[in-house]
Design brief:
By secondary structure, this protein is mainly α. It has 21 helices and two strands. The radius of gyration is 28 Å and the shape is globular. The N and C termini lie far apart (about 85 Å).
Length: about 450
């Protein structure tokens, strides 16, 4: 091979050895900076420009060897285990949705067939989106974080005005924790201004959730947004000091809550919490589902399933309890599927399912906290918080704490599964590209001039 004497030719030879397309520009740019630094050092020694460039190239070594080594070290890190576990859970969810609809005497064969076809199509679409997100470059989202934020606010408005598909608006709102995480990162190193603008950026998204309205999406945004902001402030990403940042966030949060409480805006919410805790106080209205679920769980002793006849009647939501009151039919193939699963098949299948989902979430969280690429870490944390809070909300709902609707991730809901698998694919793309992820340096805060006055007494 002819000897390479210029930096451009050297870099081209190195580029040809790197097979991963996403890695090429990142690695070549770093190598170019290093070569230019070497060339500048030779120029300072008084070498002519052409000779300085030649010496810098020679010092770096053979380009084929350098490129081959870079190709070996910086390869995609496959996440087949997490991808496989996600797909298996989604497939189990599709099966359960059809199975429990089929168990209901109120569902016709045509309805069951349609449900099966929709669940199968949803599984295929979810898998395709998960793989598409898995091969996505997360840094592109980071570079266009503010455009993503504006789009997340504008899109629900457009859907509402022209199409009015409420379920799509609800699904978009379930992406808000991720959007907030990207928005937060754009203010890293911006001082107090960045901290306050970060918190202020959550207000329009909360307004969208209230407008839908969707209490589950609002709670998801508030809890995850608080966790992400405290995490960033606790690591002094804003540059205001750790304790100052954390205390400021908590003061703002509790101040807003106190204001809403004093103005009476939280009265309705507090009443719903009371009914969720004691559903028997309003068994015919808001507490109806909680009262019914509490009755269901009394029929499910630990580690013992009940008869098929009883399970069928429970799944239909038409079993008679106390005082001859007949319950209205309810679709137990949706939000209340976990409760229906335990009533029909016992505790063990439900516990195994929840344990598998917990393994997936903990796996995501642990690997996410280990990421050195800060934007990627925020993305993974946002995904883990979204799915984790959905799981907690669903568990509370199915055990009788009925505050708002909540779907168990990957198990309940066809369209919700599409969003959940896309989020998981995006988180896994962070792990896949960790070896080449690079963060843009944060500009130091501009030092302001201070006027100092000194008094001297004689």
């Amino acid at each position: 091979m002819p000897e390479r004497k210029t930096i451009a030719a050297y870099l081209e030879a190195v580029r040809e050895q790197i097979r991963w397309k996403r890695a090429r520009p990142v690695l070549v740019q770093e190598l170019e900076r290093h070569l230019e630094d070497q060339r500048d050092d030779f120029l300072k020694e008084g070498k002519p420009a052409e000779e300085a460039e030649r010496l810098a190239v020679e010092d770096m070594g053979d380009p084929v060897t350098v490129g081959t080594e870079l190709d070996r070290v910086h390869r995609p890190r496959p996440q087949w285990g997490l991808l496989g576990l996600t797909f298996v859970l989604a497939a189990i969810g599709a099966f359960l949705r059809v199975e429990f609809l089929q168990a209901s005497p109120y569902a016709s064969r045509e309805q069951v067939l349609i449900k099966a076809l929709v669940s199968l199509a949803s599984l295929g679409l979810s898998t395709a989106l998960m793989l598409g997100a898995y091969f996505l470059d997360v840094s592109r989202l980071v570079r266009h974080a503010r455009a993503v934020y504006i789009g997340a606010l504008v899109l629900p408005e457009l859907l509402y005005r022209f199409l009015y598909p409420t379920y799509l608006i609800v699904l978009i709102s379930s992406l808000y924790p991720l959007v907030y995480a990207l928005w937060l990162y754009t203010f890293r190193g911006k001082g107090w201004r960045g901290l306050f603008l970060t918190i202020l950026g959550g207000v329009p998204m909360a307004a969208v959730c209230c407008f839908i309205p969707n209490a589950s999406a609002l709670s998801l945004l508030l809890f995850s947004g608080l966790a992400l902001t405290l995490y960033a402030a606790g690591r002094d990403w804003f540059g205001v000091g750790r304790w100052k940042g954390v205390c400021s966030v908590l003061v703002i949060v509790f101040g807003v809550l106190l204001y809403l409480l004093l103005k009476g805006y939280l009265d309705s919410f507090l009443f719903r919490v009371l009914i969720a805790l004691r559903p028997e106080l309003d068994a015919q209205n808001r507490g109806y589902m909680g009262w019914m679920l509490n009755t269901f769980w009394k029929d499910v002793p630990p580690l013992r399933s009940i008869s098929g006849e009883a399970a069928l009647s429970v799944n239909a939501g038409a079993r008679v309890f106390g005082a001859g009151l007949e319950l209205r039919p309810i679709d137990f193939s949706h939000d209340f599927l976990p409760a229906s699963l335990a009533v029909a098949w016992g505790w063990v299948p439900l516990l195994v399912l929840l344990a598998a989902l917990a393994v997936l979430l903990v796996w995501l969280l642990v690997k996410g906290l280990r990421q050195s690429y800060l934007p990627g870490r925020l993305v993974v944390l946002a995904v883990a918080l979204t799915l984790g809070l959905q799981t907690l909300f669903s568990a509370a709902l199915n055990f009788g704490f009925v505050l708002f609707s909540a779907s168990l991730p990957l198990i309940v809901g066809n369209f919700q599964t599409v969003v959940d698998m896309a989020l998981i694919g995006l988180a896994l793309s962070v792990f896949r590209g960790d070896s080449i992820a690079r963060e843009n340096p944060v500009r130091p805060l501009r030092q302001r001039k201070r006027l100092r006055i000194r008094f001297e007494y004689q």
